């Protein structure tokens, strides 16, 4: 309800603002990060000088919003601005003798500044796919990839306007999103922080998709009402609960195949010495346990054995690496 209200307000605001952004439209943009900072500064100046007309209706119609100034920018240009903002943060950090953590926080702050209104501006599937592509692209700035992946996780404590919109957008591009995340998890030489974020994002994806799948099925809806219980993905593996509609079962079968692919890759992160990293192995074991406890797995016994066996295997590989 809250998210729908936020989106409704935002899109109402967009529909009410038709004033083109100030400035020379023919002026070439050489640095999009500096250009965006200039746009926000223009908005601040407009807000300070704009005296609303008297009357309740006129104040709403004449209201100006910062995202209105971003309308001429495409997602590709915003991604370029993110790269430039990261470079700016690193240069500032070098001048001010910041440590790595301080520079990383400044990079995240700059990226958030650039992308806050990106979701409002997207109106094509190809533009959503470009954001998804940026998450998986090895040559992309790691700070940007990490930021995008973290914005995809619904249970983050603080939700930005961008994260709300991004999660809605990728829900309509589920296949592309899944393939990209699985590629990140499978990649042998992927950066550990990005791989960990990818694992978290992919687990959240499955948890959400299974939940949505059963919530919309009328058989499960009826059972929830009858038993006065909340729907739960684990109902899928319970033989005592009525089977869902055939269309729902088809969706579940697809999710089961995808989840199995994910489980196999998590097991490899623990057992394959070619791609072993202690932090990634720890995260993989943690997520395997979450899958066992919260998602419908056809081979529960095998997964339980894999989890218990992964502890000794991970320790053994870690010791080999140290020695």
Written overview of the protein:
The model is unreliable at about 1-25 and about 55-60 (pLDDT under 50). By secondary structure, this protein is mainly alpha-helical. It is globular. The protein starts with a helix and ends with a helix. About 70% of the residues lie in helices and about 0% in strands. α13 (about 245-270) packs parallel to α15.
List the helices and strands and how they pair.
Blueprint: H1 2-16, H2 32-49, H3 56-61, H4 75-95, H5 100-115, H6 118-121, H7 125-136, H8 142-151, H9 161-171, H10 174-186, H11 192-215, H12 218-227, H13 246-271, H14 278-294, H15 300-322
Cα shape: globular
Share of helix, binned: 55-70%
Number of helices: 15
Number of strands: 0
Beta-strand percent range: under 5%
Mean pLDDT equals 84
Tell me the major beta sheet.
none
What is the first-to-last residue Cα distance?
55 Å
Taking all Cα atoms into account, the compactness measure Rg is 23 Å
The SSE order reads HHHHHHHHHHHHHHH
Unreliable parts: 1-23, 56-61
Structural class: mainly alpha
């Amino acid at each position: 309800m809250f998210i729908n209200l936020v989106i409704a307000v935002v899109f109402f605001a967009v529909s009410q603002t038709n004033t083109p952004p100030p400035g020379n439209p023919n002026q070439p943009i050489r640095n999009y990060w500096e250009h965006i900072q200039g746009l926000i500064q223009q908005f601040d100046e407009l807000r300070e000088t704009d005296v609303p007309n008297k009357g309740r209706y006129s104040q709403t119609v004449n209201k100006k919003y910062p995202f209105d100034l971003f309308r001429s920018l495409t997602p590709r240009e915003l991604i370029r601005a993110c790269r430039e903002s990261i470079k700016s943060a690193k240069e500032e950090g070098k001048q001010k003798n910041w440590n790595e953590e301080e520079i990383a926080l400044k990079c995240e702050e700059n990226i958030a500044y650039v992308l806050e209104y990106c979701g409002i501006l997207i109106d094509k599937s190809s533009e959503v796919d470009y954001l998804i592509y940026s998450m998986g692209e090895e040559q992309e700035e790691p700070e940007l990839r990490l930021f995008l992946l973290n914005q995809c996780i619904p249970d983050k404590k603080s939700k930005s306007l961008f994260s709300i919109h991004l999660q809605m957008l990728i829900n309509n591009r589920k296949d592309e999103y899944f393939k990209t995340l699985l590629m990140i998890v499978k990649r042998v030489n992927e950066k550990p922080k990005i791989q960990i974020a990818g694992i978290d994002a992919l687990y959240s994806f499955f948890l959400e998709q299974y939940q949505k799948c059963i919530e919309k099925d009328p058989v499960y809806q009826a059972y929830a009402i009858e038993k006065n219980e909340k729907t739960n993905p684990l109902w899928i593996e319970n033989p005592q609960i009525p089977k869902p509609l055939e269309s729902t079962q088809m969706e579940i079968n697809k999710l089961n195949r995808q989840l199995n692919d994910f489980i196999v890759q998590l097991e490899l992160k623990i057992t394959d010495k070619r791609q072993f990293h202690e932090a990634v192995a720890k995260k993989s074991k943690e997520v395997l346990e979450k899958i066992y406890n919260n998602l419908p797995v056809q081979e529960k016994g095998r997964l339980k054995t894999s989890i218990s066996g992964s502890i000794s295997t991970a320790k053994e590989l870690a010791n080999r690496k140290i020695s």
